[in-house]
Amino acid sequence: MRRPLAILAALATLAGCSGAQEHALLGEFFSASRLRDNTALARLATVRFEPTTQGIITKFDIVEVTAERREPGSAIVSKDVSISAPVKLPSGETVRKRLVVTIRRDASTGDWVVSAIRDAAAASPPRS
Fold it and tell me: Fewest CB atoms within 10 A around its CB: which of 39, 61, 65, 86?
């Protein structure tokens, strides 16, 4: 009886870790962006989330992670991570935003880097 419970506990733990790698990367990215740490950002991203124009994100929830996709004729692999986050705007107002962050695997190191970030509303096709 203990063995099935242990297996269920292990499966629940694994399910809870879904998106853990992406969460760690994005946490570092938003922290480095907030601090304007260009040295860290050079290692983590090819884009910035500029606090003076876009705002500051200190916490976020991952809503969805797409499957990895390979660009045609290339070794570049990328995926989109949709997040929901309270964003403190430069005006001081805090608004909840849904953003889509594109991450890609760096071909030379194998590490994931942030390559694009956009509002989810702008990323979605219009509904008819």
Answer: 39
What DSSP line would sit under 85-123, residue for residue? EEEE-TTS-EEEEEEEEEEEE-TTT--EEEEEEEEHHHH
Provide the residue ranges of all domains of the chain, joining segments of one domain with +.
2-123
2-123: CATH architecture: Roll (3.10)
Determine the Cα–Cα distance for residues 21 and 59; give it in Å rounded to an integer: 15
Instruction: Look up residue 4 and give its DSSP letter.
Output: H
pLDDT tens-digit map of 31-70 = 999 999 999 999 999 999 999 999 999 999 999 999 999 9
How far is it, in rounded angstroms, from Cα 111 to Cα 11? 26
Whole-angstrom distance, CA of residue 109 vs CA of residue 96: 34
List C-alpha distances in Å: 54 to 15, 51, 79: 32, 5, 22
Mean pLDDT is lowest, of 46-55, 84-93, 102-111, 118-127, for: 118-127
Rounded to whole angstroms, the Cα distance separating 116 from 106 reads 14
